[in-house]
């Protein structure tokens, strides 16, 4: 696999084109939806900081921190927008190895917090926790998009699928070792979405899916008991009897459903939620949102997500560059999958996995990485060569 | 394939469409679920009166009333009992090992044991199988909170009965059990649910509605239709059930139990009854029916094996035979025939009837019990010798209608009204009764049989004792009462209501007649018909009875029941039976006894000795000296040698 040779041509064309960015192609709708969703995230962070007892805001409260991260995210959004996304295709392989390095660092130095269990997912840099698996999601979208763009001539061959799986496996294993089932699922979902949208052979995709489904029982039986137990721990807290306590996943689920149910049509009002949710700021933020903002608020958020995904698909459809198209498709898949699984988990349609809700879940890394991703999409919009119609 | 970096063939409209469709379907499913969670269950919450919190009303069971003996010692306690059950129907088979493992970690039980319990449960899959009881409240709460991780598992919080006296009071107190369809139909209107536990026997059954109390209600926050532990927002307190105080003293019951079980053991009989009553007001002072059962087995949840064992026992341990089974009263019924003869003026105290070896009538011989007779006898002698031929002829002279009239006056053939489930009411054969059951009227021979309490006559031990009490107290037929008083509470103040004696019937009989009968029953003892009671330092009067029943053995002898009803005068040392002042009457009944003499008199005698602490009395708490010694029995009782068992 050649790494750099195909990109030298694009390096040459970068400088002159940078001058005529087509700002009329900037997708204001996309940015608006993302900003509105971030406001919902800020509202949730405020609610979690203030609480029903109306605590004073401190510098370390989720709300203040989210504002800080939102400022960073705006800067990142602007920078990635003006940055020529084609450079990303050129440097997709270095980015890939940087990503693997960062994931190794996380495994080596990472520490968990009590809140999210003992998984090692955070790396503390200069006093700020950073979750490189969030960055990994974005980087892998770039790497997959670049790979599939390169594979355009032979996109229908089974080699496309095998190649992308080979790329997927190293970071996937590193993420699983943290262990972070949520991110690993997002990676797999992104691969599947991208393969589908890139025009990969449906026959081979179907064959692969069938083979995987058929292999699951054999792999399961071949595994040692401790391996099974470790896997089960990821999805099911009960599998580890020593972790029996009232803060377990079963309690979270029943409380989250209670929170959603008691929200009603209009909700209890921001900060008025009174159902005890152990991880209200992160994975179960949807429970708080539904409880305090009610069905109306929840529906608004779901509609915003739908519009956002729609704008990403529009961006993909209009792009002339396959790399740009795959970037947009990858972002759309990633966001859609996270919304589906996170909300589904809270309302009892999906198993419990630690997947954050984009824009809403408290977390700087997630927000900044989303901003970087969306900025890149805007970058493709500005550099679109296809004429408008 | 034509590959370009621009142009329509890179963008596959079908795949974009499929992706967009997936997004629409996904978001729509989420929204639909949100609608069902927030709007549909939310509207139920609004109906419950709180539009921000799903709530439900839960009933809290009132603590069941307690039962005390006459001196205030508790016979029954309530203990809180958390038990964990698994409903096999709600537990998918594939989840069973997982759930068993989870339960084992919190209950400290072997998972294999749990699975075995679930798998070996017989009967319907919807019947919960008990896995553990006596579970701590912390563990119970934890299991409830994680119920969605434990399909089919439920925590049952119940107030459990702790029957402190077990076999001693089992026939009186009874036990609780799952409400039956029949009971539910009756009790539904009173707010019972089809899953309630109600009294099934004894006082638990008879006083069910008093003991139950008023259930309280509490409003609880709901999550997915299930109450969240600890989130009680509002409650109406449950009112505890009424407490019962019995007329029976535990020590008195122990004496009766000791006397009867001794008698059964010595005579190799398995089934017997002893009842002690105060003739002046109908208060029951002791009541033992053997064999009996341990009611704590029911409180703990009896196993099918043990329950079947009790059901299969031919001696019916679950039946209180004092009020639940009826037997031919035999010669004890001569009280009725004698009263009828005297009161109807057929005979007086001086007229005599000739007792003979047999009375021939209608081609049959009606034999004297000793095969000889005593010649002309007056009523005193007729009762004292328990002459059958005397009473055959007297019954003929009285006639069927008057005989059944007096039986009815004494309370035979109808409920005594005792505050226990009274499942047997006896039979007094009349022409109408026989016509309705056998299609013909009574023969005169059957009337003669009825005159000595044989044939169709049957009575419960309770009926018989109550009839003798009416004689001993001067003609008042009291309703027997187990319970002395009922204490009800509204949570703060307690009101004690004494149960007043209920007069069932004032017998239309002269005091002279009853005095004659009392003196006659005293002569049963003094004439040494009973042989053994005369040597007591107290005065006991009474009447023996032997009733043949069933199938003759190869020597053409029928098995027989043994009866003795005895009572003492107001001053037991006075030997004065002219006054209707008796304070103590006892009936003893032995089913299918095979002793030569009448063992029932021995049981009553032993009870009297224990009750009055007479010489010869042994400390009943000392197992080595309790009861009679073998040589003492040899010297003083008739059960080896006296033929006077009738």
Q: Of all protein chain pairs, which has the greatest interface, and how many residues does each chain bring to it?
A: A-B, 60 and 50 residues
Mean pLDDT of chain B, nearest integer?
82
Architecture of the domain at 58-89 and 96-246 in chain B, according to CATH? Alpha-Beta Complex
| Structural class by SSE content of chain A | mainly alpha
The radius of gyration of chain A is 21 Å
Distance between the termini of chain B: 119 Å
CATH topology of the domain at 58-89 and 96-246 in chain B: Penicillin-binding protein 2a (Domain 2)
Going across the biggest sheet of chain A, name each strand in turn.
Answer: 1-2
Mean pLDDT of chain A: 80
State the major sheet of chain B.
7 strands, mixed
- Any low-confidence stretches of chain B, pLDDT <50, length ≥5? 1-8, 43-52, 617-645
Distance between the termini of chain A: 37 Å
Tell me the radius of gyration of chain B: 34 Å
Strand residue content of chain A:
under 5%
Gross morphology of chain B is elongated
Unreliable sequence segments of chain A: 1-16, 113-118, 237-247
Question: What structural class should be given to the helix and strand makeup of chain B?
Answer: alpha+beta
Estimate the helix proportion of chain B, in percent: 25-40%
Helix content of chain A: 55-70%
Strand percentage of chain B, roughly?
Answer: 15-25%
Task: Identify the CATH homologous superfamily of the domain at 58-89 and 96-246 in chain B.
Answer: Penicillin-binding protein 2a (Domain 2)
